User: Fold this.
Amino acid sequence: MSLTKRLTWPAKRLTGRPSWWLAGWPTKWLSRCRHTSSEAGSVTAELAAGLPVLVILLAAALTAVSAVSTQLRCVDAAREGARAAARGERDPAAFARRVAPAGATVRLSSSGDLVRVEVTVRARSLGRLLPGPMVDGTAVAAREPGTGTP
Assistant:
């Protein structure tokens, strides 16, 4: 029997591993990688705790995107209404309502040669139980010469 087999054989018989395994580095490395019984299932618990937070953050982000989109539509509607009022159209609020989101309120006011249009609506929330934020859009336009006051 060679010297290598003699040194390897007793260790292999007792532990099932060759003697170089008992020398140190694989055992130390594997002890860091193994999970102890107290850590078993910790990934599942962390996922169960973190997943609702991620869902709430996603819902908040999507609600914010919806609110920004609705606000842009309100600004577009207010601009359209202000242009119609500046041109002297008969019903500038109808022009604004045509572009505004559903359920929006349109307010017209004028002072001197300026016309101000405000469009306000409640943005949709992703969670139906929560109310959405109120968004508005405002536009001001100068009346064109030769147009009467509405």
Observations:
- The first helix runs from residue 3 to 15.
